[in-house]
Design goal:
Layout: E1 2-7, E2 10-13, E3 18-26, E4 31-39, E5 46-51, E6 59-60, E7 68-73, E8 78-83, E9 92-100, E10 105-109, E11 113-118
Parallel strand pairs: 2-11
Antiparallel strand pairs: 1-3, 3-8, 4-5, 4-9, 5-6, 7-8, 9-10, 9-11
């Protein structure tokens, strides 16, 4: 099993910044790609950003391009999401997820961290 623990959420004014962190533990050799998802009330969970095990092949959803940056430190088994120029529509619960290397699906999820952007 793999455990994921997020931190760094909070309340920020529009235009501000936050950095989310996600620390993985357990059988980390069994995961490769990691991602950040978010879900707000009444909306489906969406993939915000993801990054390959080697730090490449980075994906961003269109609405965050140029504002968010995903990175990872494999020595610390940690993935980060730097969020700049935050907007009220970025308000959501943000979840870290890790992809099962063998099954190639996001099998492991963190508990989520609330991000609230006030206007």
């Amino acid at each position: 099993q793999v455990q994921l623990v997020e931190s760094g959420g909070g309340l920020v004014q529009a235009g501000g910044s936050l950095r989310l962190s996600c620390a993985a533990s357990g059988r980390t050799f069994s995961i490769d790609r990691m991602g950040w998802f978010r879900q707000s009330p009444g909306k489906e969970r969406e993939l915000v950003a993801s990054i390959e095990e080697n730090g490449g092949n980075i994906y961003y959803t269109d609405s965050v391009k140029g504002r968010f940056t995903i990175s990872r430190d494999n020595a610390k088994n940690t993935v980060y999401l730097q969020m700049n120029s935050l907007k009220p529509e970025d308000t959501a619960i943000y979840y870290c997820a890790a992809r099962n290397k063998l099954l190639r699906r996001y099998d492991y999820w963190g508990q989520g961290t609330q991000v609230t952007v006030s206007s």
